[in-house]
Amino acid sequence: MMTMSINNNNSTSINNNNNDEQPEMPDPDYIKMFVGQVPRSMDENDLRLMFEEFGRVHQINVLRDKVTGASKGC
Asked: Where is the sequence biased in composition, kind Low complexity (predicted)?
């Protein structure tokens, strides 16, 4: 199971301090999405690349085993 927030509107955000840091909290228009059946072979970077096609990904949380650190995917 994985959680991510995606902004699916096509608005442009302007950052006045000229750096590319993402904001601490997502915009209220963001979507919180839960995705299951994620292959264990995929990590956060793979998932970000896959979902950024649809909008900016704010956060990805892959559920992992507390002892081994292995993904709890399918």
From this structure: 1-19
DSSP code per residue over 29-58: T-EEEEE----TT--HHHHHHHHGGGSEEE
Range of the domain at 51: 1-7+29-74
Is residue 18 very low, low, confident or very high in pLDDT (cuts 50, 70, 90)?
very low
Predicted structure pTM score: 0.59
Q: Is 61 helix (H, G, I), strand (E, B) or coil?
A: strand
The tokens describing 49, both together, are 């690349």
Residues 59, 26: contact at Cβ < 8 Å?
yes
Please report whether residue 22 resides in a domain: no
Cα dihedral 24/28/30/32 (nearest 10):
90
